[in-house]
Amino acid sequence: MNLPALRGHNTAVVLGLLRGREGVSRGEIAAGSGLTPQAVSKILAPLRAAGLVAEAGRGESTGGKPRTLLRLVPEAGYAAGVHLDRGRLLVLLVDLMGRRLDRVDEPLELADPAAVVERVAQAVERVAAGRPLLGVGVGCPGPLDHAAGVLHRVTGLPQWDGFPLRAGLAARTGVPVAVDKDTNAAVLAEPPGGSRSSVYVHLGSGLGAGLVLDGALYRGARTNAGEFGHQTVQLDGPRCECGNRGCLEALCLAALRAGDAPAAARLVGAGVANLVRLLDVDRVVLGGAAVLAEPAVFVREVAAELAERIPDPAWQAVPVAVAAAGEQAVAAGAAELVLAPLFGRES
Length: 347
Ligand SMILES: [Zn+2]
Prior knowledge:
The strands form four sheets. Strands 6-5-4-7-10 form a five-stranded mixed β-sheet. It is of the alpha/beta class. The radius of gyration is 22 Å and the shape is globular. It has eleven helices and 15 strands. The structure holds zinc ion (ZN).
């Protein structure tokens, strides 16, 4: 693919207007982007030459000649979305429309970083199967430095501390790589809908969150935002794996170990209510193995806790839902780390 054709903010805006729609006229692109029709034509020419945009037939005439409709060519480029988890590797191939195609899903031990890079690269090659790959996005447990693509001291995995995952995987695959926390990737997998500020809460072997604030993923100064599970909710509570006492994660995991999913869900709900008060998010998305095992319980209990703790739900209603991509949320969102910038969506 002709990558230079993808550069530039206005190009991203035009591609964003074409994504997810069947056929769009030049006039609609001009109206949606605020660009002049001449500027739109100038942007479209190299995109059509590169095979990214094609004609989608003719639209109804508004007088004069019929309008030519344009569409994005989904198979013009692909991204691989990788979910590196404790014990499992999931790699998805995603086209330009964000549709999930082939996947590799297999057991994986995270013990040896160099061996993991090799396994991931091989899985990416298998799903891509020779199709043009724009890049690889990786969602994995934090802490990590998104900007540098380097992992920090992941709990229980000291050998990953300082490991340059992005550089290693880019060298091995030959395409650009983005690395982010699993929760940050997962929040990108949600269709934005009308939401400007949302939180994705992940409860699996740990408890974390990904935040979209004012339309953009929020990572904080050192990719440490969203350490939702380590807010102290009980000053003299049980010891947490992080070394502190009374963390929300420690209480949630204890409830899950006791087989009490509703109690775990209410604890998550109390934490989410704190977050809504702090950040005024307008949507809550739940994911992770513990949630997906009993989705109805989690949605019901988190919503009930929110309704009880938010001062006036009449004007601060916050819908609660399960992640649209289910157990593929992290991998699908990891692919968006690569694709979203092409369409003018910040990632
Ligand atoms: Zn903790």
